[in-house]
């Protein structure tokens, strides 16, 4: 067996881990995460191909190859589209539309694909890999990649090469390459022969290597990726940024994503589970096998609770067959969103037998639950109303870039959960498959989304160029991969596509895509997000769920736009859509688009509840910071307070997905000289902005929490009016400045914060006492800091796995000698590590910081900095992390790496 072979036991979160509290023991969750389908028994081997690659990137396509001339490269390029298109055939229903591979090989051969090509000077890399995240950032104007795409060098052509191991034992097997995501225009050669590819960077895809392999010899895999400039509205990343597997199976095996498990007639007493298993025989001769599927409780760790009828089938050479079977499960433990319900998982284990020998074993995690989409009540899960308290999340992981890392994604979900978030919209593309494993197990609801544009471009070189050829395969591949995840509650076929407003032609495309979704998964409703479609247009009629972006709370519907009267202003639209679609569930797939920079407060503060940011109101285009009084927004946006008002007036709405949960790379509205967004209520480094607490107060009304802003260290504001706001679920609050009451307030209807806008700054202490129903609820205080004296260091986890992937996220806080946070500290901090770990990246959440992420020196921003440390594979021991800065007492933390 190959040394890359994984044979980890299939284990799941124990319930005690899941339900311990909002902040579950993260180490345990991480340790229990199963690599997807990673086992090597019973005829199926799933071998990680993540290590040992050689990589080289050029900024232009100097290799004379292009996917298509639509990419507008030099005319000498050979266009390889007709060799790539056949890779889509599995996902094209009508045989007449499938693609015939041209005879022979392409005219142009390139040295990079040859075995004897010398790649010794190329960089050694492991996957998941994002070639751009190391930087450096492009600063200023006229650069190849500007603020929109994150100012990082994503553009150009990247080549990856490595050997693949196959032995004589693999004779007669089918051998596949499974790539979970490669950005973008992937083309794959094996032993100098073009195998195929997949242009869309967000899909997982499979290529059959079998015909091109030489058993017992060296086999050279070469993968070429190509990222055009002007191809994305945000940071796409570049490279093979998700896992890659070599899958070896008997010629008769369960197909790629070959199972589909659903449930019906669900109650707490019983449920019918239906399983569809697709089997294929890639050999030449006919084969008779038996198919058996068992169900196990507790995600697979629990007892066997049933088995489907064992079925005997004969498949002719080259044939595919589906087996449908049903099973009644007594007293099912239902899957539901945390914390209202419990995310119970089951595991279906399918085995194929030939002459009583197991020739394939395929595992399908699934959940049993019902979804009801109610136009007046919202979403019901297992008959119980669950308000969608969701956020939008992009695919990047901040300083780690697009390169997927389970622990980093899990941390994002943990911080979101602390706010009371129970739902994620995968804006705007298929996520890493492991992220859906996490949402299943942690109990988040998911809106899974596939496209940000269709035929109409948002950028000249975005994926509208390939939509005509690839819409069906992209969509079917997306659905087949993801449809067993119980966390997914709806499919989104598009975000703010231009076709929303093109009348019947746009609605026809929506209908075509919707029909495909129906074929692949009739169990969930379909939607597409609308920021511009109106209730009387054909587009919303082609959808099940009405998903509004910003229209729910109204667009440009604030006093600042009172003079605007040109159709760009929309009053709140919940009611209008509800009237036009009285049977459809309505939600907001994007709300707010509020902007802020953590720890930055600008004066004066608007006395309204929502205002577009500009240089005279909430913004500073010189520093490129936006005030964190959390009242300022993108010009089309609304503060959370304004969003909440419209939601409470329209209680039939199912809830919202805030734009956005975490900050992300690129799209730095309103300051395009910056690198990362201002929309998140959590910054890029994972530090909470004040807005986090505004959502927490609403989403966790039982949490005894009060949060004061701003900070209280203003040496230049003595005697000046400095408004103080408090976020809490309490209904009364009294603020004290140095012990003197500033008044006790009652929360009035349609207000979601306490504000004392006339407070005059004096150094000392701010203190708030809040009350609910007359009883003390929660308190908070903020103290004026003295000069910076020390660095306080805190890892998120003190024990991590020595597996080469696990991470510790370590926060460093600049404090005075008494331990008070120094809120505006921008001290340059230098990090060092000893022991079996390494620094992967540093950050501070400052959207304007163009210091490359791998830098070991990072300025604190608003008093905080982050260092991300990874344990080395296979070496246990203590990792000592130190943070030092001139004139300050250093901080030191110890993290245990354990095998
Ligand atoms: C929406 C869009 C998102 C993001 C957001 C904030 O219109 O769907 O992708 O761009 O605005 O600008």
UniProtKB/TrEMBL annotation:
**DUF4982 domain spans which residues?**
719-778
Q: Which residues form the Glycoside hydrolase family 2 immunoglobulin-like beta-sandwich domain?
A: 259-369
Q: Where is the Glycoside hydrolase family domain?
A: 791-893
Biological process terms in GO annotation: carbohydrate metabolic process
Q: Which Pfam families match?
A: DUF4982 (PF16355), Glyco_hydro2_C5 (PF18565), Glyco_hydro_2 (PF00703), Glyco_hydro_2_C (PF02836), Glyco_hydro_2_N (PF02837)
State the signal peptide span: 1-24
Q: Keywords on this record?
A: Glycosidase, Hydrolase, Signal
Domain Glycosyl hydrolases family 2 sugar binding: start-end pairs: 120-246
Q: Which family does it belong to?
A: Belongs to the glycosyl hydrolase 2 family.
Protein name (Swiss-Prot/TrEMBL): Glycoside hydrolase family 2 protein
Record organism: Melanomma pulvis-pyrius CBS 109.77
């Amino acid at each position: 067996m190959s040394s890359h072979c994984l044979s980890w036991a299939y284990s799941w979160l124990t319930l005690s881990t899941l339900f311990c509290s909002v902040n579950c023991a993260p180490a345990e969750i991480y340790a229990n995460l199963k690599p997807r389908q990673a086992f090597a028994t019973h005829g199926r081997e799933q071998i990680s191909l993540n290590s040992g690659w050689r990589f080289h990137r050029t900024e232009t396509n100097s290799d004379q190859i292009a996917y298509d001339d639509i990419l507008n490269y030099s005319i000498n390029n050979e266009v390889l589209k007709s060799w790539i298109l056949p890779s889509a055939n599995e996902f094209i229903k009508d045989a007449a539309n499938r693609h015939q591979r041209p005879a022979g090989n392409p005219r142009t051969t390139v040295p990079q694909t040859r075995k004897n090509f010398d790649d010794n000077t190329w960089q050694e890399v492991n996957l998941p890999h994002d070639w751009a995240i190391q930087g450096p950032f492009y600063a200023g104007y006229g650069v190849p990649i500007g603020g929109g795409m994150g100012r990082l060098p994503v553009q150009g052509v990247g080549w990856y090469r490595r050997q693949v191991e196959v032995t004589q034992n693999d004779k007669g097997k089918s051998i596949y390459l499974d790539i979970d995501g490669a950005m973008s225009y992937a083309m794959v050669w094996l032993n100098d022969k073009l195998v195929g590819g997949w242009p869309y960077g967000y899909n997982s895809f499979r290529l059959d290597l079998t015909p091109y392999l030489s058993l017992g010899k060296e086999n050279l895999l070469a993968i070429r990726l190509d990222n055009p400039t002007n191809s994305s509205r945000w940071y796409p990343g570049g490279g093979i940024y998700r896992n890659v597997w070599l899958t070896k199976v008997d010629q008769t095996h369960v197909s790629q994503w070959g199972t589909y498990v659903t449930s019906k007639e669900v109650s707490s007493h019983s449920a019918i589970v239906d399983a569809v298993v697709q089997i294929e025989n890639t050999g030449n001769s006919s084969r008779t096998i038996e198919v058996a599927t068992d169900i196990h409780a507790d995600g697979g760790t629990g007892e066997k609770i049933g088995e489907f009828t064992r079925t005997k089938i004969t498949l002719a050479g080259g044939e595919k067959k589906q087996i449908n079977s049903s099973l009644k499960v007594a007293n099912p433990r239902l899957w539901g969103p945390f914390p209202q319900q419990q995310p119970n998982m089951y595991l279906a284990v399918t085995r194929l037998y030939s002459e009583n020998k197991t020739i394939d074993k395929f595992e399908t995690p699934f959940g049993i639950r019902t979804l009801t989409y109610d136009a007046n009540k919202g979403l019901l899960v297992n008959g119980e109303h669950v308000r969608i308290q969701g956020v939008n999340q992009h695919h990047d992981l901040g300083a780690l870039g697009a390169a997927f890392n389970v622990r980093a994604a899990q941390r994002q979900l943990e911080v979101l959960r602390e706010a009371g978030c129970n739902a994620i919209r995968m804006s705007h593309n298929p996520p890493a498959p492991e992220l859906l494993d996490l949402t299943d197990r942690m109990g988040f609801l998911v809106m899974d989304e596939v496209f940000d544009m269709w035929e109409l471009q948002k950028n000249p070189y975005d994926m509208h160029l390939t939509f005509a050829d690839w819409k069906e395969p992209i969509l079917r591949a997306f659905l087949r991969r993801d449809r067993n995840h119980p966390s997914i509650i709806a499919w989104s076929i598009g975000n703010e596509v231009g076709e929303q407003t093109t009348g019947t032609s746009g609605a026809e495309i929506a209908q075509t895509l919707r029909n495909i979704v129906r074929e692949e998964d009739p169990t969930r409703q379909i939607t597409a997000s609308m920021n511009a479609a109106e209730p009387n247009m054909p587009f919303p009629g082609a959808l099940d769920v009405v998903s509004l972006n910003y229209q729910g709370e109204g667009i440009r519907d604030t006093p600042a736009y009172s003079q605007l009267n040109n159709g760009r202003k929309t009053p709140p639209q919940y009611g209008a859509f509800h009237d036009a679609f009285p049977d459809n569930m309505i939600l907001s797939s994007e709300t707010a688009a509020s902007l802020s920079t953590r720890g930055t407060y600008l004066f004066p503060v608007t006395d309204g509840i929502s205002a577009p940011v500009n240089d005279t109101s909430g913004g500073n285009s010189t520093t490129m910071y936006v005030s964190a009084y959390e009242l300022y927004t993108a010009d089309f946006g609304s503060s959370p307070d304004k969003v909440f008002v419209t939601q409470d007036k329209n209680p039939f709405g199912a809830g919202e997905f805030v734009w956005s949960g975490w900050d992300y790379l690129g799209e730095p509205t309103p300051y395009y000289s910056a690198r990362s967004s201002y929309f998140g209520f959590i910054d890029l480094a994972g530090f909470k902005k004040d807005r986090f607490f505004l959502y927490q107060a609403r989403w966790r009304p039982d949490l005894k929490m009060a949060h004061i802003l701003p900070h209280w260290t203003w040496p230049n504001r003595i005697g000046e009016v400095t408004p103080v706001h408090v976020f809490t679920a309490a209904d009364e609050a009294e603020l004290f400045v140095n012990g003197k009451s500033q008044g006790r307030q009652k929360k009035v209807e349609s207000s979601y914060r306490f504000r004392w806008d006339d407070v005059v700054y004096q150094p000392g202490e701010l203190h708030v006492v809040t009350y609910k129903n007359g009883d003390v609820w929660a308190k908070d205080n903020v103290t004026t800091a003295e000069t910076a004296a020390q660095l306080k260091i805190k890892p998120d986890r003190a024990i991590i796995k020595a597996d080469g992937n696990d991470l510790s996220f370590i926060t460093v806080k600049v404090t005075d000698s008494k331990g008070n946070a120094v809120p505006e500290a921008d001290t340059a901090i230098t990090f060092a590590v000893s022991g079996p770990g390494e620094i992967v990246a540093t950050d501070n959440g400052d959207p304007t910081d163009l210091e490359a992420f791998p830098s070991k020196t990072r300025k604190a921003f608003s008093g905080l900095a982050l260092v991300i440390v990874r344990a080395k594979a296979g070496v246990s021991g203590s990792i000592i992390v130190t943070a030092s800065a001139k004139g300050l007492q250093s901080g030191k933390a110890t993290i245990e790496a354990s095998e």
